[in-house]
Amino acid sequence: MNYKEAVEYILNIPKFGVKSGLDNIKTLLQLLGNPEKDLKIIHVAGTNGKGSVCTMLSYILCEHGYKTGLFTSPHLVKINERIKINNSDISDDDLVEILNIVKEKINYMVENGHNHPTFFEILVAMTFIYFKKEKVDFVVLETGLGGRLDSTNIIKNPIVSVITSIGYDHVNVLGNTLEEIAKEKAGIVKNGRPTVLYYEQQVIFDTFKAECYNKKSELYSYNNFEYNILKRTKKNIDFSINNKYYKYKEVYLNSIANYQIINSSIVLTTVEVLKKEGINLTEHKVLNGLRKFEWPGRMEYLNDNLLIDGAHNVEAIKMFVKDMNTIYKDTEINILFASLKDKPYEEMINELNKCNNINNIILTQVSSERAVNVHLLEEICRKTGFHNIYSEDNIDEALKYALKLNSKGELVCCVGSLYLVGYVKSKINEEDLYD
Description:
Blueprint: H1 3-12, H2 23-31, E1 41-45, H3 50-63, E2 68-71, E3 83-85, E4 88-89, H4 92-111, H5 119-133, E5 138-142, E6 160-163, H6 171-174, H7 178-185, E7 195-198, H8 202-214, E8 219-222, E9 226-232, E10 237-243, E11 246-253, H9 259-276, H10 283-292, E12 300-303, E13 306-308, H11 314-326, E14 333-337, H12 345-352, E15 358-363, H13 374-384, E16 389-391, H14 395-407, E17 411-415, H15 418-427
Parallel strand pairs: 1-5, 1-6, 2-5, 6-7, 7-8, 13-17, 14-15, 14-17, 15-16
Antiparallel strand pairs: 2-3, 3-4, 9-10, 10-11, 12-13
């Protein structure tokens, strides 16, 4: 199996993979010798920000000389992005080698009457095998969906469980209330292991407090922190920050997003817990790690006037709008928008209409059976109050239109779907799009 065949195999798994609680992943990992038991893991769940938090932690650990494995999802352009060591993607050759090892066990499972593992279960198994093989010092592990029944939750003894901002997403699976969603996320809390929690609603704190009490997990929680922006440019931000666990006089991030300040506050709290767990971390290297942090697709400039942001639920769109109304309050912006059927796209459009300075909204649809039809999006936009609407179901044509505005020096922001963001990022360097 070559690399192309390996990727095709993985991407076709949803057609025949069956999710069955944690049974599939448990069986698969047992057949593989339970590699996860030999790894020191930081486990991260939440609705928004968990990928950024994981990546910040990875940069900090790498800065201290620790060989660090990082597992995140989804990928934007290439599936290798999901599995990294020292912030470098797994190579094509290693991905093929590891998949062949896992596929042998999958064949055994199917032959013996077990369900075929799902797309995500196979990636989790590959991740554990690869990180054990490469003898990493630490693993930063992001959950996929939820927590309690997430395939990553097969682990038993993390160094710490970390919970980022919780909001409404995947409600068809996780529940319709914040309490129900929080209970699913709280499934990663482990007996006798510490938990870091950032919360905005009391019901979330109450849910985790009860879960941590039951599992004798020390809870490091907070819902407020202080920060002061010292300097902001078009590409980065300097700020001071403190909460009841730490105080930093100056933090530098290669991001303009205010939500990354929230994520850094979670990371810095986690750093204090890691210190208590005996991991040697110094302030100087923590700050250096954050300075080197990069996370593609989150308020990322692809050129001077083309900005992509992976906001794909209501809470993330609210954060995006807040940034637009503060950072770009004196700039007219154009929005390129697409969404998936299982996302609250009508609510997201309503939130986008709270941007004070949108000039045009460009609607399109990604190449997926789950994509929302562009004409439905247009109907919602008109009801919401948008006027300058350009609809194009062909995503390349929509992007060309956006780039014409971009070439005139107008700011274009791509939001609504990580599929859209990934596609734009992959296509932006193709010269023919500018013709």
